[in-house]
Amino acid sequence: MRDMRQTGVITVSVVDDDRMLIEGLAAWLAGVPDVRLTGRAATVAELLGTEPSPADVVLLDLLLADRSDPVGNVRTLVRLRRRVLVVSVLTSGDMARQMIDAGAGGYLTKDHDLAALVEKIREVAKEEVAISPELALGWLADRDGDRPILSPQERAVLLAYASGMTLTAAARSAGVQPGTAKNYLERVKDKYRKAGRPTYTKLELAARVREDGLTI
Asked: Does residue 119 share a domain with residue 78?
């Protein structure tokens, strides 16, 4: 993936069959200096076949005309090391949880304006977990209290490392440098510690993966 830090510009691709929304987003982003729309498609398969180059963030509509499985769409993109922000008309905390658990970096309902969307794009680009404000409180309250929220990148490194890979191999699998992978694992351990589940060793990380049913 292109390093956005080199240019200061976040590139975005959109997967949505709402042409009006995409045209509106394109017009809006024309005036936003740090975010640029570089790809658009009606399905995930179309995006992967036509995108000029992988964008920093993929905006993914939850319900597409091809009736593809939303969880499957997120997992397909995450396996390709893409950062995903799901957008939807559904104001469902349960659906938001499913998308985040599948590896999405955020979930935003479509009743927000484009300015709010751009802010969530920036958060996902920075590897933060971005949730619609009205869903966030209930979503967090409904989660298991001892299950930390991991970013897609933290999850990818954790799963690779806990599967038995060396740190170097896990870093390569997640598409990052070993030093970055080590930082992600330290952040994961810190989150488990704060959740009341201290985790120090590779075996303990593997146990947390099994306990929490983490998959990509």
From this structure: yes
CATH number of the domain encompassing residue 67: 3.40.50.2300
**Concatenated DSSP letters of the chain:** ---GGGTS-EEEEEE-S-HHHHHHHHHHHTT-TTEEEEEEESSHHHHHHH-SS--SEEEEESS-TT---HHHHHHHHHHTT-EEEEEES---HHHHHHHHHTT-SEEEETTS-HHHHHHHHHHHHTT--EE-HHHHHHHHHHS-TT-----HHHHHHHHHHHTT--HHHHHHHHTS-HHHHHHHHHHHHHHHHHTT----SHHHHHHHHHHHT---
Query: Which residues constitute the domain of residue 168?
Result: 152-212
Place of tokens 């000029």: 52
**12 plus 87 within the same structural domain:** yes
**Do 75 and 46 belong together in one domain?**
yes
- Are both 138 and 156 inside the same structural domain? no
* Same domain flag for 17 and 123: yes
- For the CA atoms of 81, 176, 132, 122, the dihedral, rounded to the nearest 10 degrees, stands at -110
The whole-model pTM stands at 0.72
Which pLDDT tens digit goes with each residue over 125-153? Answer: 988 888 877 676 555 555 555 778 788 88
pLDDT digits 0-9 by tens, 96-113 = 888 888 889 999 988 888
Q: Is residue 147 part of a domain?
A: no
Tell whether 180 is covered by a domain: yes
| Spatial contact of 127 and 105, defined as CB atoms under 8 Å apart | yes
